[in-house]
Design a protein that fits this description.
- By secondary structure, the chain is an alpha+beta fold.
- It has 3 domains: about 170 residues, FAD/NAD(P)-binding domain (3-Layer(bba) Sandwich); about 60 residues, no CATH class; about 80 residues, D-Amino Acid Oxidase, subunit A, domain 2 (D-Amino Acid Oxidase, Chain A, domain 2).
- Strands 1, 2, 8, 9, 10, 11, 16 and 17 form an 8-stranded mixed β-sheet that branches.
- Helix 2 packs across helix 5.
Length: about 375
């Protein structure tokens, strides 16, 4: 390894250039800290570039009411966050908050969804949970002219839901980070983090970077980097597929959990969930199932050509809820992981970054630590 050190020492080194790392880094820069992002090359698993783009509230937080609160808080912060990115970078991330639907096919799906949403509400102790159920007629009124398939019996709806263009969001955050004085170090794959006096040495393939604090926001890379630092977090991959249609006239006034129309007119279709390990190749059988369900839901989609499809690997914890943790054995080392990097980008930039900088932890973080996984193992 070359004997070189990145110019200067940093207050915080953030490992990971996907959705979570840059969002946290922006907030750290706003607190006048010297920050670098250590990123890999383009030949790695890039979860952030395979994202659907939903800013989604409904259905999040099963078994963890604090996650409901945290998601709601991010959705509330999103308009300001998106406006600031556009003001400084000129990049419109396409954020819109028209509410969102999950369309339900058949009475069995409807009953399952009602039980699921009802449990989340009850777990919150009767606190407000902004999700309601609509019958087919009400859905048709919200989606005028769409033409629902005969199997659609209703939907769950939340006014908090919305969406963004995930690639523009990623571009805007990276642009703003460097514009504001952050140091971006691509092709710096991290192999080790070790204590060096009052700071940490982050060992990369291009040299050593020194920082007082280190944030591991490296997605699947957390499995390798975390355990030696007291952050043994049981991350697993889950494969999801997305299909993209040719451009068409605007027909969807709001995002649906498995459909999202972009401002350019393309319709994104998803979402699947497969336990396939670290295999991100496309499963044609899954693609066919997504297309078939789309056609059952909105028959007019049968007439659109699919122009792109891809698979990506979500970063999931056992309970599908996020991790925000500081190592007990290595103070100043933090781990942040979630499969909702887009949804939580605003709250990561505006609130979670303050926790890393030294502010008191948000009250929701009492549920987001690593100790819960030990409790789950013994439950």
């Amino acid at each position: 390894m070359p004997d070189q050190t990145a110019p200067g020492n940093f207050d915080v080194a953030v490992i990971g250039g996907g959705m979570i790392g840059p969002a946290l880094s922006l907030g750290l820069l706003e607190r006048n800290l010297k920050v670098c992002i250590l990123d890999e090359g383009d030949d790695v698993l890039r979860v952030a570039r395979g994202n659907f783009g939903l800013v989604w509230f409904q259905g999040k937080g099963f078994g963890m009411p604090r996650y409901v609160e945290w998601t709601r808080r991010s959705a509330t912060l999103y308009p300001e966050f998106a406006a600031e990115l556009k003001e400084h970078t000129g990049v419109d991330v396409g954020h819109a908050n028209p509410g969102g639907l999950e369309l339900l096919l058949g009475e069995e799906e409807l009953a399952h969804r009602q039980r699921y949403i009802g449990q989340i509400y009850q777990q919150g102790g009767g606190k407000e949970y902004e999700v309601e159920f609509l019958d087919r007629k009400q859905v048709e009124e919200m989606l005028p002219g769409v033409g629902l398939g005969e199997d659609v019996v209703g939907a769950s709806y939340s006014p908090i839901d919305g969406h963004v263009n995930p690639l523009f969001l990623l571009r805007a955050m990276h642009t703003r980070f460097q514009q504001a004085g952050g140091t971006y170090l691509p092709h710096h794959r991290v192999s080790e983090v070790r204590k060096n006096g009052g700071a940490y040495d982050v060992v990369t393939e291009k040299g050593i970077v020194s920082a007082a604090k280190v944030v591991i926001a490296a997605g699947h890379g957390l499995r390798e980097l975390g355990p030696p630092l007291g952050l043994d977090i049981p991350i697993r991959p889950q494969r999801g597929h997305i299909l993209v249609t040719e451009r068409t006239k605007q027909i969807l006034p709001m995002p649906i959990s498995s459909f999202r129309q972009t401002v350019e007119g393309s319709i994104m279709l998803g979402v699947s969930a497969e336990e396939a390990g670290y295999d991100d190749t496309i499963n044609t059988g899954t693609v066919a199932k997504i297309a078939e369900r789309a056609a059952r839901t909105i028959p007019a989609l049968r007439h659109l050509n699919i122009v792109r499809t891809w698979a990506a690997l979500r970063v999931l914890t056992p309970d599908k809820c996020p991790v925000y943790a500081e190592s007990e054995t290595h103070p100043g080392i933090y781990a942040v992981a979630s499969h909702s990097g887009v949804t939580l980008a605003a709250v990561n930039a505006k609130v979670a970054s303050g926790w890393i900088a030294g502010d008191p932890a948000p009250e929701q973080f009492d549920a987001f630590g690593v100790e819960r996984f030990d409790a789950q193992k013994t439950a």
